[in-house]
């Protein structure tokens, strides 16, 4: 009953800046040095050098796909100059996946941009699309054999990060709080207040850039192309029905609409949140709340997948992120089982889901914060020793059997 289709992808996801270390030409690196309250990514997990070990751990556990991102700022450290050595580095990552029978899912841009791009006005500059497309054209030369390409990760979260950055610059004495981290107490309310508004025009601008990049990837590779979207799995509290529609449009639906015609859409879901007449309602305190302040809601995945399917008009879904920030790995194991039950249910209803990639393979740098641990594998940040958690074996067992009702075998 709980069997998944043949060729269903089972994997885990990461992003360059969060795991590689010393990403010194990126806009994030520059910010980390100047923004109050931001922790430094520093050496991160040193995956720039240890990617082979990371992919081996994933494959040894029984997973068959790995989502990772290319770092634009390494590949194009100054405008128009492309580093052959860095392109060769990322080709080696892809080759290592092939060697281990792992399907690479390659993200071309995951939140970070080169510092020079940010200085020139970032995504809102008139020639942003032209610059991104020039980079995308260059990287297609290393994508031979790659079947899944994500142009951009969560443009809707990138828009929220842009807003958060602007706020920091305006508010004196403000401490950095990532839009992916809700925090506690007063921070929680502020966080929900500022995330309530999202400008649909920014979504439309991102959509145009995504389509331009997708055309280039299609012209030069045989890969399936899409982007990934942060899904809030939002619901209306009594009286919040209209506000829900308004908020969800700017935060999400304009992006889901932007996926129509794509080969797949990457659904990324973690928790669910209510909207009342005033906006997003902060997650009430609860012992099961996660380390980023959100509610324990594994059902958010099925809610998000159904919503994506409806708004895109039936674009195939790849779950490109789903996970939980917790120090308790038993909670993670439970979360995965419940999220997958829900996902299986959506497939029984007819949604075309192609795979499940857990966030994240490693405990990593959560955009200015190190405390929230999302990993299937713990990483010692002094020695870089990797220690797989029971959840990795559990997800690996599910992957190997392609069904849910299995015992851990690793
Ligand atoms: C992002 C990841 C992030 C994760 C957990 C997503 O918003 O794509 O980079 O670490 O969620 O917050």
CATH fold-level topology: TIM Barrel
| Beta fraction | 5-15%
Residue share in helices?
A: 40-55%
Give me the Rg, rounded. 20 Å
CATH architecture descriptor name: Alpha-Beta Barrel
What is the number of independent domains? Answer: 1
Number of strands: 14
**What is the succession of H and E elements?**
EHHHEHHEHHEHHHEEEHEEEHEHEEEH
Low-pLDDT sequence parts: none
**Structure classification:** alpha/beta
Fourth CATH level, the homologous superfamily: Glycosidases
Please characterize this protein's 3D structure.
The chain has helices at residues 16-19, 27-34, 47-61, 72-75, 84-99, 115-119, 128-139, 155-170, 185-196, 200-220, 241-258, 300-312, 329-348, 390-401, and strands at residues 9-13, 65-69, 103-107, 148-150, 224-226, 228-231, 234-236, 265-269, 273-276, 279-280, 317-322, 353-359, 377-379, 386-388. With 410 residues, the protein is of the alpha/beta class. The chain has a single domain, classed as Glycosidases (TIM Barrel), CATH 3.20.20. A 9-stranded parallel beta sheet has the order 5-4-3-2-1-12-11-8-6. Strand 11 (317-322), helix 13 (329-348) and strand 12 (353-359) form a beta-alpha-beta unit. It binds beta-D-glucopyranose (BGC). Beta-D-glucopyranose (BGC) binds at residues 15, 18, 153-154, 157, 180, 230, 268, 321, 359, 366, 374.
């Amino acid at each position: 009953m709980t069997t998944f289709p043949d060729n269903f992808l089972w994997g885990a996801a990461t992003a360059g800046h969060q795991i590689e270390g010393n990403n010194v030409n990126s806009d994030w690196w520059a910010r980390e040095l100047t923004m109050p309250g931001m922790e430094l990514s520093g050496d991160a997990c040193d995956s720039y050098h240890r990617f082979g070990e990371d992919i081996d751990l994933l494959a040894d556990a029984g997973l068959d796909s790995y989502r990772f991102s290319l770092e634009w700022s390494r590949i194009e450290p100054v405008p128009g100059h492309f580093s052959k050595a860095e392109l060769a580095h990322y080709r080696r990552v892809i080759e290592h996946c092939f060697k281990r029978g792992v399907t690479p899912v390659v993200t071309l841009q995951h939140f970070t941009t080169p510092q020079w791009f940010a200085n020139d006005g970032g995504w809102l500059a008139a020639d942003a699309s032209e610059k991104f497309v020039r980079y995308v054209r260059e990287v297609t030369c290393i994508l031979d054999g790659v079947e899944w390409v994500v142009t951009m990760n969560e443009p809707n979260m990138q828009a929220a990060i842009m807003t958060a950055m602007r706020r920091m610059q305006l508010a004196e004495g403000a401490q950095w709080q990532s839009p992916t981290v809700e925090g506690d107490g007063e921070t929680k309310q502020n966080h929900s207040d500022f995330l309530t508004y999202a400008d649909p025009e920014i979504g439309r601008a991102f959509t145009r850039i995504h389509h331009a990049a997708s055309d280039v990837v299609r012209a030069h590779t045989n890969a399936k192309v899409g982007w990934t979207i942060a899904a809030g799995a939002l619901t209306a509290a009594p009286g919040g029905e209209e506000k829900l529609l308004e908020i969800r449009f700017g935060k999400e639906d304009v992006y889901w609409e932007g996926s129509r015609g794509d080969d797949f859409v990457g659904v990324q879901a973690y928790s669910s949140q209510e909207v009342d007449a005033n906006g997003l309602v902060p997650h009430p305190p609860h012992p099961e709340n996660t380390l980023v302040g959100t509610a324990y809601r594994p059902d958010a995945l099925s809610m998000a997948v159904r919503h994506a399917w409806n708004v895109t008009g039936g674009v195939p879904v790849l779950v490109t992120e789903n996970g939980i920030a917790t120090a308790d790995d038993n909670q993670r194991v439970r979360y995965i089982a419940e999220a997958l039950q829900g996902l299986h249910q959506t497939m029984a209803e007819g949604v075309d889901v192609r795979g499940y990639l857990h966030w994240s393979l490693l405990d990593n740098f959560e955009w200015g914060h190190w405390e929230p641990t999302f990993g299937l594998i713990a990483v010692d940040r002094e020695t870089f020793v990797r220690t797989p958690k029971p959840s990795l074996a559990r997800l690996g067992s599910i992957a190997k059997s392609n069904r849910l009702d299995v015992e851990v075998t690793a």
